[in-house]
């Protein structure tokens, strides 16, 4: 397979900011975010769509950004962890993750948080059991699940 | 002479009593806000300097064992974007990246010992080009039959290290005289680390052959040494640095080195920054896992279920090289007693060589395999005697005059009787045992199991010289503190705990203490962050550094203010001087003007440990950490499906330095252990190819696997009996082994099918393993 492919243009709105990129059509959304836009908060865990570390919101829906090509999202609005909140103005889910110690090594955390935000919007935070089921696509090898569920429950309770 | 001066090592035992403002508090992880906002920088997040090249390893995909007679790398070199290809011929120094014993070539020179063994590395302008090119090498090979399993290696009698054994008494004679005796065998599976951040290194060449390597490693000192050895430069020319890892779990103790060395070789050859980040599948294929074992035992016991003698044999799959297999398998032996007294005992370990990736450290470092075998023995005795399994355990637990381990160390700090009594009450064990029995008599298909397992885990590196640590503390003239130590942060909260110690010592708030990246340039000659010892040894080293600075400040203040030294203290951002106080910042400024040194290197070595392996005598551990867990499961005897319904844990961390972090370690360790004994199954085919090399085929626990009821509490400890940092205990590894209770609960559920028959359940208890055991039970005759 040739390594050089014709580049194609793609327009994204990332964290509210319009971005225009010329990318190899095989570039994943994840690589476009990390390598081209230098938004390194989105992590690559497995590159197979199996671990959830690369979860971002595309038009409000959670997607694993390693399994979607940048060009497939032309015109879409993407939210990464950097766009959710800042250290001085945390999103309630970010604040809850801090308050509940819902991480250890931190590598899965951005994906967990974006997944959690979408989960509440989907209406899947009705019970701990439901939260656990609908968070099962986001692996945490440190096993901080009890605290992750607690953080989501806290935010869901505030919003509900 | 002040109290501090009379105690230059700072080991004066004043840490048990007193009021503390920073230690023993549930302060949050130092990187908490960075983690939730995506601002924490892992190595792959560092902005790449212009001209950065990317490296990908390549291997011979045809064989697990044999040799290649010719390699054609021309198609690799011709691939667009490829800058160079590295092979063994490109190693200026020694072509070896083993932690100690040798036998781990950086690049194979012709012999292939496992499927995935690195032969070359591609250096290219993009990671994608490097990875694509790495698949294009052509090999002419001579194939040999690989030894894949423990059985293969036993049949061939091939080993990476000599057999080792210890024990006491005439085991065979006691076994022969015992009122009862049973023999058992179980397979204990391995485990993939699956750190979410895969192996990565980023090497930046400097002047004069210097090399700066950012490595996701638990052992920067070893990376430094191995890079220097490969580049044929002095250790002093190499700096290894790590700010944080996205998980380690032992998988980055020795096996981060190869990738750091290859990145450095690439950087040295190209004179450009070079980054190597393993693809997940390559990571799982090319890096070692927890050792899997076959455990065989014979145990004699009396009518009360008390062990009289036991012979336990462990046959470990070590993979193709020794790596850390000596220490790992020794620790299997050290924990083959778990918490039980064996009057006569002989423990043996064979370290088998197989044509699979070299197995390595993994949280517990061999201990979990020993614990699981001990618990199987207790469960089997319970089945044979008809006694409640917890009663059998209580009768065999260490106690007065039954307190010497198989390796001769006396158990002096046993708190298990208290822990067991409390957890038995809070978990409502007796009532639930009755409920489980009632459930099982009502239900034909679904069966419940309940198990209660204790834990005793030895704390210290069993390789005595690793029990040392250093720290570097600077106080600047604005009163802020720079902290560096030899330990590495992998999510366990080590940096937070050590910063707590420093803040406490100076009476400052945590925000005044700056945590900095671990680097061999600041604290040299360190041990790996392993053996749960990170906080124990680095916390002590940091405390010693602080006390050295404090001693100078106290002497200065006493002289300036004419106040006796024993009336000077540090708290609330102030230096308390008699009845008055002066802000710490003011004191520091004055001290600088008076030419008082405000920086210190602290050094600590663990006392009391005297293990002599050759003679199998002495004391390997400073102390033990204890805990207990009670788990309830339900299995489906038609499908093998299993669900963990409830878990109760009571765990001993001494006086916790940080209860929030410690609870997190206990929960996380337990979940990881639960994965090991239930869903995480490694599978090699008969050609030696790992077929479970991605999360699609290798199942680690996810949120929905965590039990509905998960109750974790810290044992209300009076503090570590030994002098440890603020009387805390190590917490990293021990809780993983509490998951033995899940495995025993599955065993209990299967055992309910036919009382009196011992289920042949192997670990992990996957649905297939459960069905095999269920089927065997149905066929068994009582």
Describe the structure in your own words.
- The complex is a heterodimer of chains A (160) and B (782).
- With 160 residues, chain A is α+β, with helices and mostly antiparallel strands.
- Chain A folds into 2 domains: 8-81, Roll (Ubiquitin-like (UB roll)), CATH 3.10.20; 92-159, DNA polymerase, domain 1 (Orthogonal Bundle).
- Chain A is 35% helix and 16% strand.
- Chain A is built from 6 helices and 5 strands; from the N terminus they run ββαβββααααα.
- In chain A, strand 3 (55-58) and strand 4 (61-64) form a beta hairpin.
- In chain A, helix 3 packs across helix 6 (145-159).
- The model of chain A has no long low-confidence stretch (mean pLDDT 95).
- By secondary structure, chain B is an alpha+beta fold.
- In chain B, a hairpin with a 5-residue loop joins strand 13 (292-301) and strand 14.
- Chain B is globular and about 85 Å long.
- The chains are: A alpha+beta (160), B alpha+beta (782).
- The interface between A and B is large, with 61 and 64 residues.
Task: Summarize this structure as a short list of keywords or feature phrases.
heterodimer; A: 160 residues; alpha+beta; Ubiquitin-like (UB roll); DNA polymerase, domain 1; 2 domains; 6 helices; 5 strands; B: 782 residues; Aldehyde Oxidoreductase, domain 4; 8-stranded mixed β-sheet; 5-stranded mixed β-sheet; 24% strand; globular; disordered N terminus
